[in-house]
Amino acid sequence: MITASTETRFFGLQAGTWAIDQSHSDVTFTVRHIIGKVRGQFTVFEGELTIAEDPFASAARVTIDLSSVDTRNNDRDNHLRSSDFFSVEDQPSMTFASTSVRNDGGSLVLVGDLTIKDVTKPVELAFEFLGVGQDPWGGTRVGFEATTTLSRKAWGIDFNIPLEGDKVVIGDRINVAITIEAVHQA
Question: What are phi and psi of 66, to 5 degrees?
Answer without folding.
Answer: -65, -25
